[in-house]
UniProtKB/TrEMBL annotation:
A GO biological process held by the record: carbohydrate metabolic process
Domain (Bacterial Ig-like): residue spans on this chain: 799-883, 892-976
One Pfam family, short name: Big_3_5
PANTHER family, per database record: MESENCHYME-SPECIFIC CELL SURFACE GLYCOPROTEIN
Domain of life: Bacteria
Protein name (Swiss-Prot/TrEMBL): Alkaline phosphatase
Domain Choice-of-anchor I residues, every copy: 348-431
Length: 978
């Protein structure tokens, strides 16, 4: 895309595509890696494991500015290349008129390695447009044009080791992109000689073609020392300036002013060249310098786009006959090229295409699928809907880890889409990689399984800073995306700017989210959190009087009674209101804030809403984002104190408001920061979690925290404003930094799901002054994070302090939670390491039947496992004395009479109270033992030999065991005769 700057010199901010195929390393970038660099895992694509690119680091290039240049100076990283060992990345900085160097030896911790100002090589207004590394040299393409009609430029050859220029080659025009052939024999440079977008040629509109001089291609043979290199010009018009017949036949829009844009060279030294404004593609044979093929990129007619800037993400529009106007180009193989169809003045098809260079036909086209990726990932920029949507601009093709990828960059939605392009006729989307604003340079580094993405947008005043992002191919999925939308009726649910979260009552797997004023009318989204990434499954439109309501929904709360409370911030104090909706999203009631509040709020008003229910009814709590101002026009003096913000309670029953103060942390004292509240969530009936955050993002971010406050038992009187005591519960900054991306500013949404899981989300601002990335976080469990407020008390009681072995006494366990919390869950009672009873807690108590109690003094403990809002707990030990179990023994002789010496059968039964005794039994004839045996069941039959005559009196004696008391049977008699 061309960017014009004021005269006398046109500015050129461009990117270069790299698509190189070498015998050892397919897809190596612009001579960056020598064959000595062995691919990390060439077989990784075949090992069966899931592979994806993991973001390892995001380096803001302002950190690499010279020491004498302020960090607030504009600086970008547009086009990049890498040294042959893959460890030194070189990038262009057109805004800073320099090239920069990064040490990426450790892809998780890149370091600035200094820069080279072009003022040292030429003029202070010289601008680098592209860069390539060949061997030990950096080739810097420089625009030195005095005006649009006097284009000029040069190619500087700089030694990589010490940044010394060893040669400078005049290019006779304004250069754009550069590419190096895979065999490093040729360098090709697109000499655009770009048009003045503010100039209207005779009889035409502003920015139209032709605007001479015509562009061309420069080729440099890389033979000998750089001091001997000479450019060779390939003109794209006749010597007299008339159009070449092949350009006319291909229906090039203005064949006398071709304006070449991007160059890419394949393994057969064929140069592919895009003519963006002319919607054309040219193929040139470099050895002979012959133009072999010219064809039009054609147009697209398709449906499934959003072409209206209206705050609605609706993929129901069509493109009809829209020309592609390709920007970046890359060779897929020796007969196919891929283009990123950014468009320029008359076109742009919001996607990318694959062409056959044999006949110029379209092999594959993305249609609306590229735009749908932006929508599904929450990265669609509705501000660009009426123009060119996500604007596919950069493109690179390389084989990484055994798979040939096409990497396609979205300039306006800040991402790079990775496709498996092994089959040029059927690319397969694999992954979306988030970038900072305006991803321009896309640099695969196959020898290290890396991808570098550099961005061209830098707005220090908004802390939108250009960076280089690094991604490494590895096992498993990346952490991005953390949330996406499902398709409904064939289209992804359109979403953006998620700043509000609420649990769904009774459903642990579902939460709700809402978008702020970015989307119109207001939208409430249903989110399935059982899957990773979380999935937005549907959108509910908020309505008023049957029509969609345009709201600034900063927060929402799903009511157990049904429907929602919505906090609408509004553009003025009076527009800060609460809305209550039914389950269908229809507004049923609107609650105004007191004028004592709204008269002192200009903006940054309602930012949080939650509710509790008790015997006195429903209570709605709100959080204001910033202080109340004495005068809302100048906002210099505060009503309550410099760092005091308000939290309010609205009692639904009597419609009364009550206000409390919350003291914010101090902002960073540099004028660009402020601190405010972003959310309030009920932890229990009187404990609330609040999100406090600063205004800073990226490396500057420092305050992204969740605190808790307790509401006082009594309401404030009159104008009294109690200042609540806050306690730090969770610092969320480490979780935001763990993404290895640009640390997001707006930590806004937070909720506690029905199972106590904690979720947080960042507001992507609809990509306005933001990268657009949404970070959806799983932040642990409420009972861990809020342990001090959700702790429980567990008590154990027994009906008696004594029991006998085999008894099953019933213990009572009571669990008390925080205010308004009635614990549920399970409890177990242990005796040392042995579980002797389990039960379910209902209404805060459980009746537990104990079993398996051992004889002796037992030390019993009740262990509560916890639930969503009550932490686990353990009771104090309770002592229980367990005596031996009682037994009863019975004896039955089968015969009442027997001969001397005859054996008779005796049945002995030993029964325990609740258990089965074991042990030794003796049968005695008087005092003499006539039989000894063991029992292990209730009844045992044995034979007894009687050797004395007369009336014998027999008894069975159970001698007992470790757990059973002894017992004796009644007498049974047998008459023994001779």
């Amino acid at each position: 895309m061309s960017h014009a700057s004021p005269q006398p010199r046109p500015s050129r901010l461009s990117s270069v595509v790299r698509s190189v195929s070498r015998p050892a390393l397919v897809g190596v970038v612009a001579g960056a890696l020598a064959a000595a660099v062995v691919p990390v895992t060439q077989a990784s694509a075949d090992d069966g494991a899931e592979k994806s690119f993991h973001r390892t680091a995001t380096y803001p290039v302002y950190k690499n500015l010279p020491k004498d240049v302020s960090a607030s100076s504009e600086t970008v990283a547009e086009i990049s290349d890498v040294s042959k060992d893959g460890r030194t990345l070189v990038y262009t900085d057109a805004l800073g008129k320099r090239i920069g160097f990064l040490d990426i030896s450790d892809p998780k911790a890149p370091e600035g390695a200094g820069s080279l100002s072009l003022a040292q090589l030429g003029d202070t207004d010289d601008q680098p447009t592209s860069v390539a590394v060949v061997g030990t040299y950096v080739l810097v393409v420089v625009d030195t044009s005095a005006s649009f009609t006097e284009p000029s430029g040069r190619l500087d050859v700089v030694r990589l080791a010490d940044s010394k220029r060893v040669a400078s080659i005049p290019l006779d025009g304004q250069p754009d992109s550069i590419d190096v052939s895979p065999d490093e024999k040729y360098v090709a440079i697109a000499m655009e000689n770009q048009r003045n977008e503010e100039l209207a040629p005779a009889g035409k509109q502003k920015g139209d073609l032709p605007q001479l001089p015509a562009g061309f291609v420069q080729v440099v043979d890389l033979q000998g020392a750089p001091t001997t290199w000479k450019p060779s010009r390939i003109d794209l018009v006749n010597p007299d300036g008339t159009a070449l017949p092949s350009f006319v036949d291909a229906k090039i829009v203005e064949p006398t002013d071709p304006e070449p844009e991007y160059v890419s060279i394949n393994s057969k030294n064929k140069l592919a060249l895009t003519l963006q404004e002319n919607n054309g593609i040219v193929v040139i044979d470099l050895p002979s310098r012959a133009i072999e093929k010219v064809f039009s990129a054609g147009s697209v007619t398709a449906t499934g786009f959003d072409t209206k800037k209206d705050g609605k993400i609706s993929l129901t529009d069509s493109l009809t006959g829209v020309v592609r106007e390709p920007d970046a180009i890359g060779w897929v193989d020796d007969t196919h090229v891929a283009t990123a169809n950014e468009g320029d003045w008359k076109g742009g098809t919001r996607g990318w295409s694959v062409f056959s260079t044999v006949d110029g036909s379209v092999t594959w086209d993305a249609g609306s699928s590229f735009e749908k990726l932006a929508v599904a990932h929450g990265l669609y920029n509705d501000d660009r809907a009426a123009k060119k949507g996500p604007e596919a601009e950069g493109l690179a093709i390389a084989t990484v880890g055994g798979t040939k990828y096409a990497f396609v960059g979205s300039e306006r939605s800040n991402f790079v889409a990775a496709y498996d392009i092994s089959d040029p006729s059927a690319p397969v989307f694999k992954q979306l990689l988030p970038a900072t604003n305006g991803p321009e340079g896309i640099l695969p580094i196959p020898g290290r399984n890396l991808l570098a993405v550099s961005s061209e947008t830098d707005v220090p005043a908004s802390n939108v800073r250009a960076s280089v992002s690094l991604f490494e191919l590895g096992d498993g999925p990346d952490t991005f995306p953390s949330i996406v939308s499902d398709d409904v009726d064939g289209q992804p649910v359109g979403w953006s700017a998620l700043g509000a979260l609420s649990a769904k009552p009774g459903d642990a797997g579902t939460i709700y989210a809402a978008a702020d004023t970015v989307l119109k009318p207001g939208q409430i989204f249903t989110v399935d959190v059982t899957r990773k990434p979380a999935r937005i499954t549907s959108a509910l439109t908020v309505t008023k009087g049957g029509a969609g309501a345009n709201l600034d929904i900063e927060r929402l709360f799903a009511r157990p009674q049904g429907g929602f409370w919505l906090a609408n911030e509004g553009a003025t104090g009076a527009e800060n209101v609460l809305h209550r909706t039914d389950a269908a999203g229809a507004i049923q009631e609107t609650v105004q804030l007191p004028t004592s509040i709204t008269d002192h709020v200009k903006n940054w008003g309602l930012e949080g809403v939650t509710a509790t229910n008790d015997a006195r009814g429903e209570h709605v709590f709100v959080a204001l984002q910033r202080q109340l101002w004495t005068d809302v026009k100048d906002q210099t003096e505060t009503v309550d104190g410099d760092n005091i913000v308000r939290i309010g309670r609205y009692d639904v029953a009597d419609k009364s408001w009550h206000w409390f103060g919350y003291e914010l942390e101090s902002p960073k004292r540099d004028g660009n920061d402020w601190v405010g509240l972003s959310e309030i969530t009920a932890v229990d009936d009187d404990t609330f979690a609040v999100v406090e955050r600063d205004k800073l993002n990226g490396p500057s971010a420092r305050n992204k925290r969740i605190y808790t406050v307790d509401m006082p038992a009594t309401d404030p009187k009159g104008d009294e404003l109690p200042i609540l005591t806050k306690r730090l519960a969770l610092d969320v900054l480490p979780a935001l930094r763990a993404t290895n991306g640009w640390t997001q500013e707006k930590l806004e949404g937070f909720t506690i799901a029905a199972d106590g899981a904690l979720y947080g989300v960042t507001d992507n601002d609809g990509l306005k002054d933001a990268t657009g990335e949404t970070v959806f976080m799983r932040l642990g469990r409420a009972t861990d994070v809020f342990a001090d407020r959700l702790s429980s008390t567990t008590t154990l009681s027994l009906p008696s302090g004594a029991a006998a072995y085999g008894e099953k006494p019933t213990a009572t366990v009571k669990v008390t939670g925080g205010a308004g919390v009635v614990p549920s869950g399970t409890v177990r009672i242990t005796d040392g390491g042995t579980v002797v009873g389990r039960a379910t807690v209902e209404g805060g108590s459980a009746q537990v039947t104990l079993s398996g109690l051992r004889v002796g003094t037992r030390r019993l403990v009740a262990e509560y496992t916890g639930d969503a809002r009550a932490g686990a707990g353990t009771s104090a030990p309770v002592t229980l004395t367990v005596a031996k179990g009682g037994t009863s023994t019975s004896l039955s002789i089968a015969k009442t009479s027997a001969r001397k010496g005859q054996k008779v059968t005796a049945k002995v039964r030993v029964v325990g109270a609740g258990f089965t005794p074991t042990g030794r039994v003796q049968i005695k004839d008087g005092s003499r033992v006539v039989k000894t045996f063991h029992v292990s069941g209730a009844t045992r039959s044995v034979t007894v030999k009687l050797t004395k005559t007369g009336r014998r009196t027999l008894k069975a004696y159970y001698v007992g065991s470790d757990v059973a008391a002894p017992s004796t049977s009644k007498v049974d008699t047998v008459r023994v005769r001779r």
